[in-house]
Design brief:
117 residues, mainly beta, two-stranded antiparallel sheet, 2 helices, 2 domains, elongated, Zinc-ribbon domain-containing protein
Length: 117
């Protein structure tokens, strides 16, 4: 799978604030929430939608003490892994809990950023 060229849908860049890889079209970094383009921030916020949101809580009382690793995996339409990231690690002791949320934020692709085949 080849990387999209700059200006195409899915093209990426590095956030100048936190150095996370983000979409080139982003007006606000989803990791650090730093503003990248003030003129587009309002437009992006108005068009943004959330096609997937999952949340769950782990409690130490129910399962005893344990360590955890939160892994996020992205697969394409053929089931091939295209991304894997360890989002965090830690431990939950009796009386503690951790809540995990996964949210996919999306913005419609404009005509100028459509991916060419």
């Amino acid at each position: 799978m080849s990387a999209p060229a700059p200006g195409e849908a899915g093209a990426t860049r590095i956030c100048p604030h936190c150095k996370t890889t983000i979409l080139q079209s982003s007006a606000v970094c989803p990791a650090c929430r730093g503003h990248l383009r003030f003129d587009a921030a309002t437009r992006d916020a108005e068009q943004r939608f959330i096609p997937l949101q999952v949340e769950g809580t782990l409690r130490g009382d129910e399962q005893g003490s344990f360590e955890y690793t939160m892994v996020v995996v992205i697969r394409n339409e053929r089931g091939e892994e295209v991304g894997r990231h360890v989002a965090g690690v830690g431990a939950v002791l009796p009386g503690q809990s951790r809540t995990f949320s996964v949210t996919v934020e999306a913005v419609p692709v404009t005509a100028k950023t459509r991916r060419r085949h």
